[in-house]
Amino acid sequence: MPTDLSKILRKKRNDILELWMKQQLQDEGLREDLISNVELREQSEELLDVLLKTLTAENLTHAHSDDFEPVIEILSGISISRAKQGFSPRETGVYIFSLKDALLSILQAELKDNFQDLFQLTLGLNKLIDHFSVNTFETFIKGREEVILRQTDEIAEISTPVIRVWDNILALPIIGTLDSSRTQVVMENLLQEIVDTGSSIAILDISGVPAVDSLVAQHLIKTVSATRLMGAECIISGIRPEIAQTVVHLGIDLSNIVTKATLSSALRHAFTMLQLEVKKVTFKEK
Fold it and tell me: What is the span of the domain harbouring residue 88?
């Protein structure tokens, strides 16, 4: 009569858990700053219980069986969580592979006198846990990609601040390269701020843009056009000599746009447009 794998593993559940925990805690790379031993035990206990509950002699060799969906669901949750917490792929790999080591060690001890069954069940368990490992890595990478995308959006948001420098005057200092997606963020932020503040002048400062090519110029012209549709006028400042030469060399027509060399000169021009006068006042000492 074939050995009942699930029966053996369920009977040895506590031994498996303790051995698995021991192997995880012995790992020098364990990040105790990211997860406590209590949390690690709870996480491991939940996964092991679901695995032992779903594992049978019939589905051992069918890793893609729907029976294992609860296991995959828990592993996916753990992978996503670890990716967001800052665990490395290696640390996540150690988690799942140390479970395999614990299962095989217990199985080997229990079937040391039944080599044929031990070989077959070891083979099945190896393939099953390897399948779980591949799924875990795929989910981990997906989780890490989500983190990177979120951080990219946050950086784009931070790098395009719209500043209200005066009544009716907004300034948007642009730092770094302008591409299509970033231009969209710049445009959306600027137009929304125009709506919120009712400002009539926007200054786009490109002092922090390393180079201007035809593509960047097109992005700027689109932003200026959209600003005008909102009833505001746009000034581009931060035109350095080398950028001016590049614009002329590329034949880019910015003649319909007010351009200034510095942010201060653009602000001075904005004051003139609004018929504002800023004077230096000297206070007399008492």
Answer: 5-156
